[in-house]
Each structure stands twice: as C-alpha cells, then as structure tokens.
Amino acid sequence: VLFLVRTQGGTPEDTAVADRLVLQHILEEAKVLSLPVVTPLGDMDDMSHLNWEQAVAGDPALRQWAHARYGAQVWAVAVQLTTDDSGAKPAGYTLRAEMLGGTPELTATATSGPASGPWRAEVTSAAPPGRCVDSGEVRRCPYALLARALLQQVADQWVQTHTINPAKRHTLFLRVVHGPKLAQFSQFATRLRSAPGVASLKFVEERATESVIQLEFQGEDAQLAGMLGQLGGHLEAESGTPPPGESTAPPARVERVVRLP
Predict the structure, then answer these.
(1) Is the pTM value of this prediction over 0.85?
(2) Is the peptide bond between 118 and the residue preceding it cis, with omega within 30 degrees of 0?
(3) What is the largest CA-CA distance in the chain?
(4) Which residues contact 244 (CB under 8 A, 6 or more apart)?
(5) Model confidence over 61-75: pLDDT tens digits?
C-alpha cells in the first residue's frame, strides 16, 4: 500500500507536522500488522502521477500506474485538526482521519472488491498533539493512536473478509530453515502468529537449524507467500507430493519450506 496524507485545519506549521507524523506512525503501525507499505521516491514521475484528487476517487489509471511501478495500491488519508478554544474549558484537540480510495483487499494483486469504508478514526488530546514527540511517549502520541485505530480497522476488515469464506481457511506445515539464528527465528514466529489471516500457530518440531510450524491460515497461497516475504522469509518449495509414476494418494503431511536469511 502507498499512502498519501493530507491534513487540514490548524496553522500551516501544524498541518505540515501532522502530515509528517501521521505518515511516520502509519509506517510504524503497518509493520506491527505485517502490512507492507511503500514510500514514494518523490521523483518527477511521482509528482506527475500521485494526484490527491485521483487517489480519493480511486482512479483506475492511478491504481494501474501505482501497481506497475510499486506493486502497490494507493490510499488517501485525509486528516482534520480541530481545536476547541471556546473558553468554557481548557482547550482540547481532536484529530480525525479517514481512508479514501483504493480497494478493501490488502493484497497487491487485488484490483477490485466489494465497497467498504471509508474507514474512520478519531483521537482527542488535552495537549497539543505534536508535543508528545519530545516526551519519549511516542507509542501513546495522538498521531500514533490515530494511525493504530485506522489500520486496525483495515486489518479487521481483511480478517472478516476471509473468515466469512471458510473455503479459504486451510492447515499447512511450514518447515522453517533458520540456521543457528534462533533469536531471528523467534522474532519471525512471533510476528507470524499476529499476522492478518493467521488463525492459529503451533510448533510441531524444533531442531538446531530448522523447525516445523503448523499454521491455520485464512487466505490464498499467494497472499501467504507475500506475507512471509514481508516477514523476512523466502518460500522455496513444496514437499510431500509423490514423484511421477508412484502412488497418487495424498501425502500424510504437505510441507512448505521457508528459508530465513
């Protein structure tokens, strides 16, 4: 996904800060959800094609261009800053965001789908929302909360879309070749467990250089391969299929081989 952020309300300085911080926290929260986000190059080609109005409208030409160049969809994130300084009580600050354009599917191969959204989120703050940047409480900043609430709705929609279609749910075994890098494997398994579409994960075999994971996944194989790539794994092969001329009975267990760098 490629996000375009535009903020309205407040001073020009406020909107510039909001544009930067909203996008920054979207990138960080997307990593937690294993949602691949592309950062535009910002060259002349981008300046000629990344048009805000077209992104909001979900223009097919823009979607085709973004898919060809970045392998991504384009979503517009509209942010509204509001300050309540009526004097009846201490000034309060409200951040509202909605995601416009794009399609509800989270895969780069999706080009159409049922109408969904726009997704909306709202966060209030007693202090100026940009002030917490200097306090060290980055994860609790209004901009971080706004990005988290917005992207969580996207992730929930993805899971719901696949949950209502039980044909997309299947069990598979991942033989993860990780070498002696056990800490890296542990991090990979933790992120995989919380990834969208993963209903359950359990360890079947653990060895010094490789492990086998049983996975309940809700989605297509291409989506799983893309997600594993975002987590740092490379889907190499499938084993368990008999050679030509031998028994065609289903194997006891089909394994997909994943290699970590």
Answers:
(1) no
(2) yes
(3) 84
(4) none
(5) 998 898 889 888 889
